[in-house]
Write the structure tokens for this entry.
Amino acid sequence: AQSVTQLGSHVSVSEGALVLLRCNYSSSVPPYLFWYVQYPNQGLQLLLKYTSAATLVKGINGFEAEFKKSETSFHLTKPSAHMSDAAEYFCAVSLTGFQKLVFGTGTRLLVSP
Amino acid sequence: NAGVTQTPKFRVLKTGQSMTLLCAQDMNHEYMYWYRQDPGMGLRLIHYSVGEGTTAKGEVPDGYNVSRLKKQNFLLGLESAAPSQTSVYFCASSRLLNQPQHFGDGTRLSIL
């Protein structure tokens, strides 16, 4: 069964510091991969998606993620954190065109001044 | 463009009461989903639908029923609410099964 693991339920950074949120999936087949963000009291919004066109995917709000097949990873990064980035981030994976998305358990990003 | 709209936004129920959560989407999506979100557990799929008139069980279907009589609407029912069903419920829709899902803002349900 496909699964997705997000390492770290909470990540704390200072404003201006690098943001790195980790996501690993279990599959021998390149999957469809997604990152979502959830702000307080809101639903999930799509940040970016990987669909095999390019290994480095750029999303909204300055975020990007790199697909590394050898590491089965799809980590989310942002060079410089902003206070408004404080939110919960979810990684999601689908192995084929006929499988639903499976969501990770989420990582809460805390940004301090 | 409203996207995915959930009603109500908040509700408090007593144990044993029943209620229906409504989800409406205006994007003509075939696929619709109901999730519950609990602290530390991420999103868990309750039921989903692959088209009008169809429904299927997800990861945690017990205690819930769903219906998709119209393509744009997906209803989630609790026949006899239990405190364990206290959660935030999200509806989502997508054009294809593995494509990005569009989420509503959630329904916060408390069962006393």
